[in-house]
Every structure is written in structure tokens, then in C-alpha cells.
Here is the input.
Amino acid sequence: MLANSPLFRGDPGRVEIPLHLQASLRRLAERAYRRGNRASLGWTSKDGEPIPADHVSQLALRNLCKVRPASRNRSFDRAELTDLGHEVAAMVACAKREGER
Here is the structure.
């Protein structure tokens, strides 16, 4: 029944991810991130650049990352990529390498 719907006809085409989200996706793939002490800090890692909180929210809306809540303290919440997020991060990295050649 859904296959006959006009929403599902044709080729879905390419999915574009904005450059600022590509950078955040790459950083999430490289290391673990935890919520900062203040909301203005966004998400931080021990040795990397912070990721703005709205980037993590946008990636979560696209099902590319998930937020794992800590039981008591919100500052221990962690953001990590989903399986789809890992696949997309690998495709973005591959496309970037191909573009540099």
C-alpha cells in the first residue's frame, strides 16, 4: 500500500549534510563526547574541540547520533554515533578523500 504512495516513487537522490554537521559527525566518530558543565559549553571531550549542543541535536534528529543519559548527573550524559552515523561518517570521509585527489 505504501509503495503506491506518491511519496515513495522515484529515486530518493543524494542526501546532503551541511559542512558544519559533517565536521561534528567526524569529531563524534573520532572520540567520546560528554555534556559540558554548562549548556553554553555544548559537548566536550578530553582532548578535542567542543561540539555545539545544537549540532548534536540536529544529528540526533537525522538519526546519526544518540544521547545516552547518565542516571543521576546530566554532566555525565554522552553523545555517540548510531550505526547509521558511523556509515555516513565513513562515506563523508571517503568522499572527502576522493575530492582531494
